Amino acid sequence: MWLLIVVMALLLVEADVSPSWSYDEIAVMDGGAITGKVTMTGGKPVPKGFNLVTFPDPVYCGRISTGTGWRILDEFTIAPDGGLKDVVVMLTDVAKGKPFTFEPPTIEARDCRFLPFVTVVRDKTEVTVVNMDPVMHDIQAYETSHLGPRVLFNTPLPMNPHHRRDVGAESHEHLPGQPMKQTINMTKGRRIFVMQCGFHAYMESWGMAVENPYYAITDSNGSFTLTDVPPGEYTLVAWHPQTGPMAEQKVTVGPKQTVVTSFQFKAPTGRRSAHEIVENPHFGLEVLGKSLEIRPTLLLQKP
Prior knowledge:
mainly beta, 5-stranded mixed sheet, 4-stranded antiparallel sheet, 5% helix
């Protein structure tokens, strides 16, 4: 399964990422702001579907499913006007600016999803992963770019030992397991972090490594704002793990000026992976036997 992630990631980045920048903290007295919106054209792409009968814990994880035995990896959250959520927008060439206080991210395994789907990480800092589900998970984390992949860590993610063992579709326990803390050591020239569950391939979380405090993740409307930007000319980058290469543009920020800008991505089309929802009477819920029932009691997904 890791090979599939690697192939996907290699298609996402076409050019070298920016080199590492040193960053100095200063008092920003006349800083400006950059605000804008990221949109996607072409509608919502065809989702990736995972047949639950091929993975462990189909009943519990099937509480979020299509009701026909498929689990969908929901990679795109798009507003009615095309606004795209979960896009990392950042300045890549800021030499100095406001204090860079970074709070290491915590990623939860909840309802057989890694949440959040997109976050930011920082080299040489920790990422914490917590299992909130009454089933076992497994962390497989990689860094990747056009240079190829490298394993960052691979470790089991235990559940809380007090979880009930007889978990059914109606169970909704979220008892935190022992937090697993891992330090991220990125190879020079790489920024992309991806994590997948080794047991449940539909569980993914992506991260972008940042080197200064001028970053934001777009909200449900696709909007973002960067504040206290020292006057100057910069490169503004937008990245979503499933839209293809990073988009970038030059911006010039004047003293106490608010720059309004935008990014637009085109929705990927066609078959995007080996995982596609195909109804097959010989490969459906019947193989589990009559004693198991997979019902979307938490969320009914629609392809």
